[in-house]
C-alpha cells in the first residue's frame, strides 16, 4: 500500500536544488500522496470502505483522493464547492477525471460549503451516503503531517534553506518537524491571509521557519502573464513543469529572493516541487477563454 519511492534531488544551479515530489506518481500530486498515506492506512485498519472529502473545482486534493480510492479500493465521495458546476463538470478536467476514477460528486453552494465542518451537515451526508471516513479539505491533519515528515531524508541535511509552497500548512509542518535545527524552512503561501501561521503552529514542533508572503500574485489561483512567462521559461530551460497555483509561485519567489540577495552567499537551497501538475489543463482552459498565454 502506497509505497513511495524517494526521488533524487535535481540540480537547478550551483546553489539551488529541486526535490521532484511530482514524480512519485503521475496522477497524485507528490504532497497529496504523502498526506493521504497514513490516513488511508488508518481507514484500512478501521475497515472503512468509503472516503469523503471536500474541495474546489481544480483541487489537487480531490484529484488525489479520487485516484487513490480507485487504486487502493475505497469508494470516494467529493463534496465540491459551487452548485453552478453541477451541469458543467464535464468541461472541468479535474472533476471529469475524479468522476472517471469512480468518485461520486456532490455539488453544494458556497454557503453550505463554508459550514461543511459542522455536525448537522456531516450527519446529512451520512444519511445520504452511509458511513465514511472524513478527510478534511486539503487533507491536513496529524496523519497527513506525519506523512510529510517523510519528504526530507538524511541526504537533505546539507541544505541551509528548504522552500515549499503553502496551502493549508500541512506540508510545511511535516518539513519543519523533520528538519535539522541549522536549517530554515521557508513557506510560500499560495493565498492571502494571516491565519496560516497559527495553523502551522498547531502541527509544527520547531521554530526554524518563516512565511514569505510576497508571491501569492493576488490570491489563490490568481495568475498573470509574468508568472506564466516564468513557468514557461523554467520549463524550457530545465525541462521541469511547474503548476500555476503552487510550485510556479514558489519558484518565482525563490528566483526573486536570490536576485535580491535574500540568501547569504553560498547558501544551499532545496525547493520542494510538491506536484499539482494535474491542474495545468484546467487552468489552460481558463486562460484560453481569457485569450492569455497558455502554460507549457
Ligand atoms: C495542496 C498543495 C500544496 C499545499 O499543501 P498544504 O499541505 O495544504 O500546505 C502545495 N503544492 C501542491 C502542488 C499542492 O497540491
UniProtKB/TrEMBL annotation:
<dbReference type="GO" id="GO:0019148">
    <property type="term" value="F:D-cysteine desulfhydrase activity"/>
</dbReference>
<protein>
    <submittedName>
        <fullName>1-aminocyclopropane-1-carboxylate deaminase</fullName>
    </submittedName>
</protein>
<comment type="similarity">
    <text>Belongs to the ACC deaminase/D-cysteine desulfhydrase family.</text>
</comment>
<dbReference type="InterPro" id="IPR027278">
    <property type="entry name" value="ACCD_DCysDesulf"/>
</dbReference>
<keyword id="KW-0663">Pyridoxal phosphate</keyword>
<feature type="domain" description="Tryptophan synthase beta chain-like PALP">
    <location>
        <begin position="8"/>
        <end position="275"/>
    </location>
</feature>
<dbReference type="Pfam" id="PF00291">
    <property type="entry name" value="PALP"/>
</dbReference>
<feature type="modified residue" description="N6-(pyridoxal phosphate)lysine">
    <location>
        <position position="32"/>
    </location>
</feature>
<dbReference type="InterPro" id="IPR001926">
    <property type="entry name" value="TrpB-like_PALP"/>
</dbReference>
<dbReference type="InterPro" id="IPR036052">
    <property type="entry name" value="TrpB-like_PALP_sf"/>
</dbReference>
<feature type="active site" description="Nucleophile">
    <location>
        <position position="59"/>
    </location>
</feature>
